[in-house]
TrEMBL record:
DUF362 domain span: 14-213
Protein name: DUF362 domain-containing protein
UniProt xrefs under InterPro entries: DUF362
Pfam short name (any one): DUF362
Length: 400
């Protein structure tokens, strides 16, 4: 790709943006492997930059420094003598307008050091993702914003907001850690799978499309490629992409990504009205329905009718406590059922609403609701983990 000196100028500031958004060890494949980050640092040093910074704003609810520690980046930064910055703690922020924004994000507050850096190197890991189906280069740049912006992004249209952030912070190059990828119900319940590749591109969409093919995902099933094409962020089709180096087909695997499939028929005991829904809401549907099964709540709640995606009408005859409205697309029916806010909503919102039969949005959740959900999550975590591993085993028995 031209070598590091074609990318990095002597005396410049280089920001490395790995995926270090969760408290997860390297072997989980949820965060960019520290050896990949170390290799990039050593390469960048050859160009003699003034500063090398590893920066991240971890997922909402996660402490970035704790994430750095768990995924091995604190040690890498120390040993390689580079700076480690938690974007969430940055005070020196600039509120910049997003020219021609497409989402609710007309301005975005970003750290000065990031905006003033001469180079940004995006270092994602390839993984399945609960609220996006799939996470790689495009999604990784979402981790440059603080929690307030992050929450705003989720409120209206996350995929489009992600594209808007890209226009504000464009990485010079994207280097993907696809040595081990996290399949399964990643990022929270990952099942690591070996691919053994590193990929690079200046085009984040192109590298993400190839990452899909490498892991056996059909990019047409991931909504955000359509959005990226709409805003012209990168390659809109495979035909526009030239792959140099190893052949994708020689390394492609059937990664287990349970966020895909026919959502209307997958849980026949339930009435699920899922049409015109983005892959994000479909992924969350899969996560929550399987959670119900794992924790023994599936058979108890088959009276629930679940609505997901844009619909012109919904059945008239369903009592309010049985009608579960998932996501902002269903907001117009809010007074007819139990509405779960978000675009997409929070990850466990659906199964908790189905079990508790009460609305728990920002404006309606009580302290007891939150306490109950946290306690349930902790109590059911081991059984859920075991369930996921069995599902993964079964998948690979059938698909290789
Ligand atoms: S709420 Fe609607 S627009 Fe938002 S992710 Fe879900 S299906 Fe897509």
């Amino acid at each position: 790709m031209g070598g590091v000196s074609s990318l990095v100028e002597k005396g410049s500031t280089v920001v490395l943006k790995p995926n270090a958004g969760h408290v997860a060890p390297p072997e989980s494949a949820v965060c960019t492997n520290p050896d990949v980050v170390r290799a990039v640092i050593r390469e960048v040093k050859k160009a003699e930059p003034k500063r090398i910074i590893i920066a991240e704003a971890a997922a909402i609810g996660c402490d970035t420094m704790e994430c750095f520690e768990a995924c091995g980046l604190t040690q890498v930064a120390k040993e390689e003598d580079v700076e480690l910055i938690d974007i969430k703690r940055e005070k020196d922020l600039i509120n910049i307008p997003v020219r021609g924004y497409h989402s609710n994000i007309s301005h975005v507050k970003l750290p000065r050091f990031l905006l003033e850096a001469e180079h940004i190197i995006n270092l994602p890991i390839l993984k399945a993702h609960a609220s996006m189906v799939f996470s790689c280069a495009l999604k990784n740049i979402k981790g440059v914003v603080q929690d307030k912006v992050h929450l705003d992004m989720h409120r209206e249209n996350l995929t489009m907001a992600m594209m808007d952030v890209w226009w504000a912070v464009r990485a010079d190059i994207n280097i993907v850690d696809a040595i081990y990828a996290a399949g399964g119900f990643s990022p929270h319940t990952p099942v690591p799978e070996y691919i053994g590749c590193i990929m690079g591109s200046r085009d984040p969409v192109a590298v993400d499309r190839v990452a899909c093919h490498l892991s056996g995902i059909n990019p047409d099933e991931v909504s955000y490629f359509k959005v990226a094409a709409e805003v012209g962020l990168g390659a809109a089709t495979d035909e526009e992409i030239e792959v140099i180096g190893e052949k994708v087909a020689d390394h492609a695997i059937h990664m287990w990504v349970p966020y895909l499939g026919d959502m209307s028929t997958r849980w026949p005991e339930y009435r699920i009205l899922c049409e015109n829904a983005c892959s994000s809401c479909q992924a969350l549907l899969a996560l929550n329905m399987e959670t119900l099964k794992a924790i023994g709540e599936y058979d108890k709640n088959t009276d629930a009718v679940i609505v997901v995606g844009r619909k012109d009408s919904i059945p008239e005859d369903i009592p309010k406590e049985r009608l579960i409205l998932h996501g902002n697309c269903t907001r117009k029916w809010r007074d007819r059922g139990l509405f779960i806010e978000g675009c997409p909503p929070a990850e466990g919102g659906l199964h908790n609403t189905i079990i508790d039969r009460s609305e728990m949005n920002d404006d309606t959740a009580t302290a007891e609701d939150i306490e109950r959900i946290v306690t349930r999550k902790a109590a059911t975590a081991p059984v859920w983990r075991e369930y996921v591993l069995k599902m993964a085993e079964e998948y690979h028995r059938q698909n290789g």
